Structures are given as C-alpha cells and as structure tokens.
Prior knowledge:
The complex is a heterodimer. By secondary structure, chain A is α/β, with parallel strands linked by helices.
Amino acid sequence: xxxEAFVRRISARLGDAASRGPALEPPVLPPTVGEDExxxxxxxxxxxxxxxxxxxxxxRADALEAVAGLLAGRGEAATLACPEDLRRPGLGGRWxxxxxxxTVGLSEADWGIAVTGGVVFRxxxxxxxxxxLLPATVAILLPVSRLRLDLAAVLREVAGLPAPACxxxxxxxxHSADIASVTCRGVHGPGxxxxxxxxxx
Amino acid sequence: xxxxxxxxxxxxxxxxxxxxxxRWLHDYQLDAKRWRDAAMAELGAxxxxxxAVAAVRRHTVAHLDEYLVQFVDKVQEAxxxxxxxxxxxxxxxxxxxIVRARGARRVVKAKSMVTAEIGLNPALxxxxxxxxxxxxxxxxxxLSGEPPYHITGPxxxxxxxxxxxxxxxxxxxxxxxxxxxxAAFARRVLRDRFLTADVGISGVNLGxxxxxxxxxxxxxxxxxxxxxxxxxxxAVMGIERLVPDWPSLAPVLTMLTRAGTGERATTYVSAIxxxxxxxxxxxxxxxHVVIVDNGRSALLGTKYQNALTCIRCGCCAxxxxxxxTIGGHAYQSVYSGPIxxxxxxxxxxxxxxxxxxxxxxxxxxxxxxxxARVPLTELLLELRSDVAARESAASSWGLGFRGFAALSERxxxxxxxxxxAGAAWPAVARLPLQWLRLLAPWTGSRELPAVxxxxxxxxWAGGRGGRRGRGC
Lengths: 201, 472
C-alpha cells in the first residue's frame, strides 16, 4: 500500500497528536539488584549459571594461549574460525577456511552484561556473525573494561554509536525445551561456550 | 447464549478428555509460574518494571504514525526495503513476489506468529517452494500438521513418544526415546536446510524506530541462522511492534524474557539494521521488512487500543485456568490464551470467534501477570458487551435476558412467576428433557436446579422461622 495513505489511516484513527499524551521520558528503571556484588563476580556467576565456562587471564596473549590449548585438547580434527584481527600464529594454524567447517569459533565481545552474564557483539567488517554461531564450540574474549552492569547501560552506549548491520546479544548456550519440556543444549547454535575475561584490558 | 462452533466444542472435548494432557498442562503451568516468579523476584521491584514497559508500549502505540514513519525512513537509509501491507493478502502476495523473483526453491523460517496469521506457508508451498520451520517447536508441529499450541511453546502439548515417532518418520529409521538424541537429529537435518536455503523469513519481536532496527529474540539460534545464512532476509512484523529507541528497548526486552520463559535473557537477541555492508564478511545481501496492518489500525482510537501493547510473551496463557483446561488448539487461532481470546475476534471479526471472549473465568490472573499491563479482563468484558449487543436483538440469549429484566423490574410479576414455576416444577421434572434442547449448551454439562415449591420471599413473608434481624 502507498505509504502516505497507510500512515494517514493510522493518524486519522489516533486523532490530534497533541491529545495523545506527553513525549516519552527515558524509562525510569528500578536499581539493578546485584550491583553490590561487583561487576566481575556477578558476571562470572551469572555467565556460569547460563552454561558458560568463564576463566580470567592477565593479558590478551594469555587468552589466545588458552584458546590454543583448548584447540589442542580437541585433537587433530579440531579447526578454528576467527576474524582476521584475532588471528595469531600461536593459535596453531589449524584454520578453517569457512566458519561452516570449523569446530571452534573465536570472537571478541564488545560488551559484557553482568546481570545476565551475557555478551554483546557488534558485527562489522571481519567481525562477522558466523564465528559465534556455526561452530559447536565458541570461545569468547572479553576485556574487563567492557563489562557493564545491565542491559540498559549497554543500550545507552549502543544508542551513541552508528548501528552496524547486526548486533548480537548472546547469553549462555543455545538451548530448547521444545521436546517434552526437557532442556537440551546445542540446538542450532553452539552448545559449548568458553569465555576469557582479560584483566589487563 | 453465544453459541460455540462445533470445532471448538470438539477440540475442548479432546483436551478435557485426555487426563494425561490435563496433568501435563497443569504441571507446565506450575513450572512456568515458579520460573517466572523467581525471575521477577530476582529482578526486584517487578511492578515498577511493568510500569516502565506499559509506559513505553502505550506511548508508542499512541504515537504509532510518527514512529512508523521514522522506522520506515531508517530501514531504507540502512539499505533495507520496506513494504506496507494493509491486508494479509497484500503481505502474502508481496512476500511471494520476492521469493519468486529470486527463484527460491527453499525458505527457512524463524518463529513468526504474524506469518502464520497471514497464512504465508500455504501460499509459498502452492508455488512449489519448500518452507521449513526451524524453531524446534514449530518444526515439530509442522511435521505433525498442527497449528502452534502456545505463543512461545508451539509443541507444548507433544509428549516424547509422539515427537520420537515424527522424527523417526523423517529419519526413515527408529530413533531412540532420548531428548538429546532427538535434538541432535533435528540439528543435523535443519543445519542442512539453513545452509541451502535461498531465503530466510523471520518475525520481528520489536522494531527500534530511531535506527530502523528489527529485533529478534530466540534461544536456539535459528533466528540468527535464518537471518545470517540465506542471501535474502524477509522480516515480517505487525505495525504495533515498535519501540521509540534503544533505551526504551531495555525494559521491554528485560520483561519479555523474564515473563515469557523465566530467564534473565534469552540466549540470542539479534538487532538487525539493514543488509550486510560492503565490508562485512557475512550476513544477507538483501533485507526486506514487511509491515502488516491486517486489522490492527482499526483498534487505534477505540476502547481496544491497549490490546496492541501486548509484547507476545505468552505468560497470560501460562496463568490462565481456562487455557490449562481447554488447551491451545481450542482457540483455533495463531494466538491462544487470554490474548488470543482478545486479539482474534478483534483482528478477524466476531463472526466465528464470538465465543472466545467467554473462554475466560475473568479471574484476573492474566492481568496480574502481564508484563505490559494489557488490561485483558477489561478487554474481554468489552468484547462480551459487543457480542451481547450484537446478539441480543435476535437470539434466545437476548430474549431470555430481556424476559428476565422485565420480570425482575416488577416484583408482583416476579413473585407470580416464581409461584407458578414452583407449582409446575414437579410435573415438568417428570417430562423427558428433550424439550429443553434450547438450553442444551448450558444443560449439557450442568444439572438444571429444581425450582423450590415455595420461594424464599414467600417463606420470609410468611414468617416461617419467624425472626428478622442480624445474621439473616
């Protein structure tokens, strides 16, 4: 339907704009429960409750070494997919040419959300969507400085940046209870998520 | 009395006659209440969160024209195409045209209620396109040829042996009676479909007007797959599903998941703004956003406007004693539970759905649970009033009430009628009850109470028992 006619019909129903109430104030949300615990312990606990294995390391090099260790522990067939800027020789060189073929995907999160134990990826350029989606195991790097208390805090920052084609908020492992109300992991998305919190960044 | 269609009665009987299913639904509601209560308690001040959601949603719907214009402009700025569909037919035809123009043979779908509302799957299948539902619950009911049973749990009614049988048929071999194994089987089958689909179709949980972003909420990852792997993504949304900006998304998303599944957050929330950029390594080349009216705008400016503030969490069904008793299929609509009893007659008209507003005890459990403060019982009562007004002119229901009103306004007439009924009842009660066929919808499951030989008024006036005063 032609846009003006479509909108005009809605406007006619709603009536005079002035009579529809005031402009929306930013939502007033109650204080977030858990703030006193501290961002790192709260995030670590909540991520673990969502099924994520969380470890803390000093530096990015330590984190990548841990990823290499994870890969080595998965045997000869294990392959890694990751964005160009995260590739390091120390990761073992067992690169998958396509994330669809990789057994492990590596991604760096742009934010962590302490209250939910979730992470946020802004997908742009080489930091695509597939590395955190297609492999059965996903490894995530998260600098401690990128931890925020709650969703509202992250969304305020999101609002101040240009929107990329996709932002993913990811909390825990892929799961479903659609079969007989029994929860199972790894339905479509990764069933294993390992996260390294990098203290030095 | 509002007649119930034969299909409704039969579907209710199917559920009420299945003791196992009754227990299953009862246990499910108890579990859902426990999860939701825990999630709300942890959040702290849930009533304040509900106020925040209601404020955002009511404001958005009251200014829907402004936010729609902004949303459409921003989607287009980001490189997406927008189509505004006044009717289900327009939406179906437009989506079919996109699919046809791409020569698509296979479409993967992420869970979407509005595509079910507009009857998209049959339309695409008629074109020879394979349509694959990829939400595990939707996949199960697609295999069984049934409509969804619940807004967030489409296969809620399916027990393990039934699902095993459905998957075994697809596999061509007997699969084990094991949930993990069945889920792994579905993952294998559907992964292939994702990788080979030409078009991905999704619903839209929310749209952010300020940036033209469509937001999808899933736990399995099928939403991400459907919007990442195929080269064309078509997102289908109702006109009312907007929020103004990112900050106003926070309370709505927070409460959507906590009310819907009792989780702090769903595993995935995808916020999609246009197709992939030139430098992006993945994502679809095209994004089409189809915005569907299909009767929604007719509710604006009416007493039903707040029905459009629903965020489709499904928690009203999780609290409803009628849903628990009659099951999701009895609503004969994509939308079941209290919100289904409201929205189905409003979008599709009262014809064929006039009984749905009566499928409620008006206990208010849905009102107490709704994270957006949709006044469900108030809306149900308004609909009942409309039904009564429509039917009173001709129906036995209206005739009966008019007769009752005439009697009750005239005490002498009322007393006489009661005395006559009391005197006649012993003879009437001996008659075969076929003569009561007119009342069959009521008496079919209830006993007709006997009329007392002497009315209370007569006993009272006659001083039997004698005393007047407190305690009577």
